Amino acid sequence: MAEAPVIAFFPEASFGAALNCVGIARALQARGARPVFICHPGFTGIFADYGFQEYHLPATGAPQPADYWQDFIRRHLPHFNLAPADQIETYVAPTWEAIVDTAIQAEAPLAALLTRLRPDAVVLDNVVMFPAIARAGCPWVRVVSCAETEVPDDAVPPYCSGLASADAEGHAAFRARYLGAVGPVQDRYNRFRAGAGLPALAPGAFLEPSPHLNLLLAPSILRHRRARPLDRDRFVFLEGAVRREGPYDLPDFPKGEGPLVYVSFGSLGAMDIALMDRMIAAFARVPARFLVNVGAFRDAYRAVPDNVHLEGWFPQPSVVAMADLFIHHGGNNSFCEALYHGVPSLILPYCWDGHDNAVRAVETGTGYRLDRASWTGAGLTETILAALADSAMRDRLAANAARMQAESGVDLAAECILRVAGRREKAAG
Q: Exposed, middle or buried, 2 (CB in 10 Å: 0-12/13-18/19+)?
């Protein structure tokens, strides 16, 4: 009997990427493969809780990624109130500096680990390339779990720009400003690549397409019309990669019933306690029930309205399936889960591809958008009620959800990955 193919997942140190990979890994496991996870310090136990074997990159003397990124986000909270273009110098370029630092620090231990593991394929869900993966002697798969804008095209808005599809003039101005700001860190990254035997990337790029397989978590309802269509042999669009979680028992709300609204800005977004506190106060005046994810900061909230329930963690896909509205930051994981379950989104973006998804939600009639900094309590209430009453949007989302669920993204991803891993087996044979 042939041994089960070993598929090594290496997601970035974020819960969105990590949990997308969990859904795909489960589908691979159901097909007889052996998925394992390579994880940064700080993510120990996340994948073991789902029953997968973990291999930990050792700490290198630098701050561990979980703590590092929490400190990084805390320092940059004021920048999240800026327009996307104004975040380029204050947040985006410094973030790329930190990401490149992480890639350089991880290179030697990652290379040693891959030599020991000898996987049949490596699945990389990240925004930066690790040369050790290209040199591991097996096929590698790129997962684009951010918005589709991460893969550039002249007809697609620039990544992290939050610009409308038709704003060609704005696209050009944003690209020029972006390339000017990230040019120095990309030069440093390309020098690192050259030292590892990899060619330099095009201006502004930190991760090349895989020559083997690229999986884009971009539901069809959101996809852009590209000037240069992607090669279907190497680029596969998925209807998301939504995992299943255990059931969630709704708490008793002292203050009546009403529609159910789920609120989550991700583990890092929960750090903005002032924003969350202001929103919770506004929710008290809305005739609905609110489940609010406040991450590790539950003790920071004292007076909580009767129609609001706070927790530090929710089985998000299960909760979204029960909700009538999902208020979130525009992370692609959250947006795909809302679409998968036919739930309208109200997006308050603060950085990265959240800006792109917020605009795309409005363009495609799949959600609403509010500015993170300038909303008022009355405006928030009005938008929530409009979203809950939008029957045309709800019908559109229901039809799309049926398609997404029928065309399971995690199953398609697993089948494609196994085909790639099979090529390695044939070559070895």
A: exposed
SS3 state of residue 163: coil
Instruction: Give the tokens for residue 240.
Output: 């998301």
d(CA 214, CA 144): 7
Residues spanned by CATH 3.40.50.2000 within the chain?
Answer: 6-239+408-428, 260-406
Token reading at 165: 């599809």
| Beta carbons of 246 and 315 less than 8 angstroms apart | yes
What angle do the packed helices 93-117 and 65-76 form, to 10 degrees?
Answer: 170
Task: Enumerate residue ranges in the chain where pLDDT < 70.
Answer: 1-2, 59-70, 256, 423-429
Determine the length of the chain.
429
Asked if residues 19 and 143 have their Cβ atoms less than 8 Å apart, the reply is no
142, exposed or middle or buried, with CB in 10 Å at 0-12, 13-18, 19+?
Answer: buried
Whether the full predicted model's pTM is greater than 0.85, yes or no, is: yes
CATH architecture of 260-406: 3-Layer(aba) Sandwich (3.40)
Give the separation between CA 373 and CA 375, rounded to whole angstroms. Answer: 6
* Interatomic CA distance for residues 340 and 219, integer angstroms: 9
For residue range 42-65, list pLDDT tens digits in order.
788 889 999 999 999 876 545 555
Closest CA to 414 of 16, 17, 14, 26: 26
Pull the structure tokens for residue 380: 């928030």
Q: What integer pLDDT is reported at residue 204 of this predicted model?
A: 95
How much helix, strand and coil, in percent to the nearest 5, is found in the chain?
Answer: 45, 15, 40
- Angstrom CA distances, 346 to 104, 192, 260, 324, 354, stand at 37, 41, 13, 11, 12
Please report the pLDDT score of residue 13 as a whole number. 78
Predicted local distance difference test score (pLDDT) of residue 423: 65
Pick left, alpha or beta for residue 32 (phi over 0 → left; psi -120 to 50 → alpha; otherwise beta): left
List alpha helices for 128-286, DSSP H: 131-134, 168-195, 266-269, 273-283
At residue 66, the pLDDT reads 53
Of 168, 79, 82, 182, nearest in space to 128 by CA: 182
Q: What is the CA radius of gyration of the chain?
A: 21
CATH match for 6-239+408-428 among 2.40.30.20, 3.40.50.150, 2.40.50.140, 3.40.50.2000: 3.40.50.2000
